[in-house]
Amino acid sequence: MSGSCGPVPALDQGGPDRAPGLARVRWGEGGAWLVGGRADRRAVLDDPATFSDDLAGVDLAGLGLGPEQHDLLRSCDRADPAGLRAALAGEFSVLRLHRLRPRVEGIVGERLDAVQRGGPGVDLMDEFALPVPTLVVCELLGVPHADREAFQRRAHGLLDPDVPAARRVDLVAELRGYLAELVDLARTEPVGGLVGRLVAQRGDALGRDEVSGLGVRLLVAGHGTVAAVLGLGVHALLSHPGQLAALAADPRRVDTAVEELLRWLGVVAAGAVRVATRDTEIAGTPVPAGDLVLCPPRSDGADLAQLAFGLGLHRCVSAPLARVQLRVAFPALLARFPDLRAAGPARLVGAGRPRAVRELPIAW
Fold first, then answer.
1. What values do phi and psi take at 277, rounded to 5?
2. Region Disordered: what ranges (predicted)?
3. Which of 39, 153, 276, 349 is deepest in the core (most CB within 10 A)?
């Protein structure tokens, strides 16, 4: 969830700038360094002073990054005068998540009801994998129930690869505008959720743009990863009936299953994007200041469960909530539909290894 990127860059097989654990790749008009070793990836992600995700001046569109990802990628290394990071740490504490879990269970149950009403052949992505994380973000932020349908439409369009980039730019602006209005509302009357609590704690010191930007980042980071893991995870389980049967027979396996899916699926694609702030080295190879550095979580098949959510300052604060949703959703789906099976071919998106499922018709 720390920035995910578009199509996986192509290896520059002919270039001399290669070392074990590091490869020069073609990406956009220039190139980037692809970090292969687990220890090297950890070192990069845990050193924001040398490897920053402030990508101001980088042509993100030219790198295949959608507009919904720009603010997400550019946010983590900036100053935090309003203390939002500290506030967010409390929002995702064990106690807060324990209190939120019953609502996550309720949302999952409501969406499974919708799947059941749709009948065999229903698209699991449209009725379950996409709505669940969006509604959880609504619950987290305190979006009023009357506004949630419109919020969902914008959120799903924002993360739909079939939606033109220009429209997604508009959707980012619309979501930020809505959340800014929610901040204004919270200044005059009680509003639940994160927005209401932040306004109550910080009052006029809290800028509406800070909160609206935060809300969009939480939506993109949390919604995108959870929806991708749900879609790809169900697709993987349907392709491996033995694993599906084992999880259905013993839901206590879900914690291990979620960690293995995070490790195996590689939903972050080419992974975290960083820029070198000074001349440095990775794996003994000089990396000049200004060069882009990519940390793909699946480069050696190890520690994806850790790296999928970033490290250090860049670690996604909503990672615990993402895990709660996944641990609730998988066993609930299999309990509701014990004879779950594919009702047609899935539509996968993303170059190379799939990064998401766009359509997943199911039957039972």
1. -90, -10
2. 1-21
3. 276
Find out whether 277 and 283 touch, Cβ atoms under 8 Å: no
Give the DSSP H or E segment for 264. helix 254-265
Instruction: Mark 216-232 as b/e (b = at least 16 C-beta within 10 Å).
Output: bbbbbbbbbbbbbbbbb
Distance CA 198, CA 210 (A): 11
Q: Over the stretch 305-316, which tens digit does the pLDDT of each residue have?
A: 444 555 443 456
Which 3 state secondary structure label does DSSP give 35?
Answer: strand
Total-model pTM = 0.74
Length reported for the chain: 364
Ramachandran assignment for 93, one of left (phi > 0), alpha (psi -120 to 50 degrees), beta (any other) = beta
Domain ranges of the chain: 10-363
pLDDT tens digits along 56-71: 666 655 555 555 455 5
- Cα dihedral 253/259/265/270 (nearest 10): 170
- Do 120 and 113 form a contact (C-beta atoms < 8 A)? no
d(C-alpha 277, C-alpha 113), whole Å: 50
Taking the C-alpha atoms of residue 153 and residue 168, their distance in angstroms, rounded to an integer, is 12
Report how far residue 156's alpha carbon sits from residue 163's, in angstroms, rounded to the nearest whole number.
10
Return d(Cα 321, Cα 316) in angstroms, integer: 10
**Cβ 216 vs Cβ 179: under 8 Å:** yes
